[in-house]
Specification:
Two copies of one chain form a homodimer. Helix content of chain A is 69%, strand content 0%. The first copy, chain A, has 127 residues and is mainly alpha-helical. In chain A, helix 2 (23-53) packs antiparallel against helix 3 (58-78). The A-B interface holds A 41, 44-45, 48-49, 51-53, 55, 58, 61-62, 64-65, 68-69, 71-72 and B 41, 44-45, 48-49, 51-53, 55, 58, 61-62, 64-65, 68-69, 71-72.
Chain lengths: 127, 127
């Protein structure tokens, strides 16, 4: 894992851009990514239905609008399918509880190590 | 009604700014305005609940967001409680089916004539 540790802010993206993804890794990545996106939509949809049912005042309406706008922006920000950032995306999804390390089984250690590193770093930050 | 006919684009606002509203007319106007606003919110809430129940895809979510945003802007635009524009606001609400001429009973003819004129003009435009 030592070699995966970014040594500077410039090192990390350069490093990830150089990592190669095999066809089977791309398949796994795509499947996990799509599943996480679907779970995100399902969670938002469930919350929206509950919020809609509870609407009583105009401010409840605009709270729902705000929730939808924030959710859309959050999805745009979080779900970035570029291989150069995908391990960071997966690390964030693990921290959010949308995916597990287990689902990424089949990716090579050059990705998994990075995902672990990034998700542990995020977990420490949120402690 | 002849004297109420605006003779130029400059005439109409000048005319309405000069019209005096008695305390009892202001009471009626406020009551009708608030009732119309409540009906607008009720209609939006009903539509939002139905749309929320039918959500199946992400695009349904963003369609709901868009509906809420448009509704909020529409309310901001339509519900303008300035006496200088109130007859036009009431005319629009009549055209939209949110209020009836009957509810404005008690306002003096200088307002009612204007409301009739404006709502008939809007009805003709939408034919």
């Amino acid at each position: 894992m030592e070699s995966l540790q970014p040594s500077s802010t410039q090192y990390r993206p350069t490093h990830m851009r150089e990592v190669k993804w095999s066809p089977s890794e791309k398949n796994i990545a795509r499947r996990v990514f799509e599943a996480a996106l679907q779970r995100e939509f399902d969670a938002i949809t469930q919350e929206v239905k509950q919020m809609a049912q509870r609407i009583k005042t105009p401010s409840d309406l605009w709270a729902l609008e705000d929730y939808l706008t924030q959710s859309r922006k959050e999805i745009d920000r979080k779900f970035d399918y570029r291989y150069s950032v995908l391990p960071i995306v997966f690390a964030q999804l693990i921290t959010d509880g949308r995916i597990t390390h287990e689902e990424l089984r089949g990716l090579a250690e050059d990705k998994l190590g990075y995902v672990r590193l990034a998700s542990e770093s995020r977990a420490r930050k949120s402690e």
